[in-house]
């Protein structure tokens, strides 16, 4: 039997990404929160909005790219990855649990020149298998202009 663990989210970054180096020369790690919202009608027919917060984690080169691109709070982002659960015992002996999205791919979203993607790279994306250098004009980062009329997406 085949199994699937895939998460795709579109939302806004809730806090500036935190970059840390692993202990004893480990890999670089980036973490941040991503807010997603959905609208629905309650039993009385009133329009409601629910915001969910997701813990996003990226490792190695993907952490480098987040840092290099200057990704920050408020930016719109598409994130793709896997759902992971981990637990640990805190300083008080309490068992703690967290669910995180281990980011494999991300894409900056938003109208050009406005709080989303930097104005020079609308639609930039990165995935774990590719390498990236800000000086590259071509390569793994997709940097093509959006077709006309496509900046008013329904979500």
Task: Describe this structure as you would to a colleague.
- The protein has 155 residues and is mainly β.
- The chain has one domain (7-38, 47-127): OB fold (Dihydrolipoamide Acetyltransferase, E2P).
- The chain is built from one helix and seven strands, in the order ββββαβββ.
- The protein has a five-stranded mixed beta barrel with strand order 1-3-4-6-5.
- β3 (28-41) and β4 (47-59) form a beta hairpin.
Please give a quick description of this structure.
The protein is mainly β and 155 residues long.
List keywords for this structure.
single chain; 155 residues; mainly beta; OB fold (Dihydrolipoamide Acetyltransferase, E2P); 5-stranded mixed barrel; 1 helix; disordered C terminus
- CATH fold label: OB fold (Dihydrolipoamide Acetyltransferase, E2P)
- Percent of residues in β-strands: over 45%
Number of strand elements: 7
- CATH top level is Mainly Beta
Strand order of the largest sheet: 1-3-4-6-5
Q: Calculate the terminal CA-CA distance, rounded to whole Å.
A: 34 Å
What would you say the CATH architecture is? Beta Barrel
Largest sheet: 5 strands, mixed, barrel
Taken in chain order, the helices and strands follow as: EEEEHEEE
What percentage of residues falls in helices of 4 or more residues?
under 10%
Uncertain runs: 112-123, 129-155
Domain count: the total is 1
For CATH, the homologous superfamily is named as Nucleic acid-binding proteins
Chain-averaged pLDDT: 78
Number of helices: 1
- Which structural class should the secondary elements be placed in? mainly beta
Query: For the CA atoms, what is the radius of gyration?
Result: 18 Å
Shape: globular
């Amino acid at each position: 039997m085949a199994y699937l663990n895939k998460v795709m989210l579109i939302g806004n970054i809730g806090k500036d990404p935190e970059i840390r180096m692993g202990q004893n020369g480990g890999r670089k790690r980036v973490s941040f929160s991503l807010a997603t919202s959905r609208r629905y009608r309650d039993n009385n027919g009133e329009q409601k909005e629910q915001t969910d917060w997701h813990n996003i984690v990226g490792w190695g080169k993907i952490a480098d790219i987040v840092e290099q691109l200057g990704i920050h709070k408020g930016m719109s982002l598409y994130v793709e990855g896997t759902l992971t659960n981990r637990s640990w015992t805190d300083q008080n002996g309490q068992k703690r649990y967290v669910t995180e999205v281990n980011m494999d791919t991300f894409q900056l979203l938003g109208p050009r020149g406005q709080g989303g993607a930097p104005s020079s790279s609308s639609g930039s994306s990165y995935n774990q298998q590719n390498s990236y250098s800000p000086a590259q004009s071509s390569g793994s980062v997709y940097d093509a202009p959006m077709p006309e009329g496509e900046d008013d997406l329904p979500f």
